[in-house]
């Protein structure tokens, strides 16, 4: 006998009903609070507020979850630890996509990279390769390039003692050298200047404001100049990286079996997953059989490493030096610790790091006040509800790490540089489970290069503080040291730091 309860139709109907109720409920829920906008353009006049500081200001008025309508795009800004947990942990799968505008899509070969790929199988594969192959502690070459380039920078500094040094430019050159070497090995060292120019143009294009992103119909008015610049930038990158990839293919073919893989750079590692121009099988490498990368993937991944690893680390080092020169008593405290632990008769060595707790807290404090990536950019893959508000699909969710790190309901004296606060064993850690402190993000999309980045930062600053004393050039005093930052993908100092090193150790100045 047929009973109604056993009928599959009933279940289908119930599921449909449940779905309908959900959709209707979502429709009825309001967006998070935010300033009123005009029809069509919405809050577009606030476009200059879309920086970490602008959004922090708005959050004071509208709260930890606020909504802006920019033309056709919904923007949600998150400014408290509690809301960040909601986005990055509780509903992490919904918010695991990245937003990308026309420029970003075009310059990343239609999101063939990891940083801008949508959450899914391709992203997962590339993330696995990066975490296990490129940035892993086991890949000694990456760490060796950090060490060697820092040694060479210390050498440069010993030749400039007593003179004003542009610390900002020095550390940017340092991290560019590190990532360039890690990615391409000793290969094409002479091409570096050309590559730096390409990177700078990319950086500008990534950050350029493009009105058609928010108001697509503006495309009618055309923007030939911008499109041309995009095409030219990608053409120069193609020219540069294709040469390098071809050389790596040749190298691989010429040394088939006796390959010890010892001096492999990142492109070598990626070539192991290369599937040839048409996706055909080049090798029968057993471990790589399921993962296949195209040439575009490799190019875009190399750009990720360049962008992810260069400005972030340089900005962190420059900010650390700036805060220490601004707070001379903290500088003295750190140098005293270095003298106590290492003594003044030898250079700093990386094995000393574990005996330098106060120094490491000062690095954490730097990343709290000046997170190199102040806004985490995520995108909603589906309609969702956060804290009773509706967040529609494709909304851009910006997590304001800068504002969260300076939230006065969590941090005492939030704007002061006080490394001591991290000495407390209950102090937050950057592993991503303490949402009041997120310099490397949290969850699926968190920074895969965290260990490598921290290593470079700690090593560089420790060397600079142990081998040298630092002073501001004559006429400058620590009180008026400028601490404004610039806003792009990263937030480095607006002006470069200039300081005068003098040699501090009792051993000779050689490494
Ligand atoms: C002090 C240094 C660094 C800081 C503060 C930093 C911070 C971050 C942050 C905040 C994110 C985004 C997290 C999110 O959206 O939730 C990120 C992503 C990323 N970082 Fe880093 N990073 C650093 C160094 C590096 C280095 C050295 C590399 C590579 C060599 C790197 C490669 C990447 C990549 C590829 C992503 C994108 C990951 C994805 O979307 O799946 N980072 N980083
Ligand atoms: C970076 O590399 C270039 C070229 O090898 C070198 O001239 C420069 O001194 C290096 N810079 C630093 C800061 O190590
Ligand atoms: C790969 O393996 C297949 C069979 O497993 C074999 O026929 C083919 O020749 C191999 N290709 C190379 C390049 O070794």
From TrEMBL:
PROSITE patterns: CYTOCHROME_P450
Cross-referenced SUPFAM superfamilies: Cytochrome P450
Transmembrane feature ranges: 9-25
Superkingdom to which the source organism belongs: Eukaryota
Keywords, comma-separated and alphabetical: Heme, Iron, Membrane, Metal-binding, Monooxygenase, Oxidoreductase, Transmembrane, Transmembrane helix
UniProt keyword annotation of Transport present: no
Gene3D superfamilies xref list: Cytochrome P450
Family the UniProt entry places it in: Belongs to the cytochrome P450 family.
Name assigned to this protein: Cytochrome P450 84A1-like
Origin species: Camelina sativa
Gene: LOC104719913
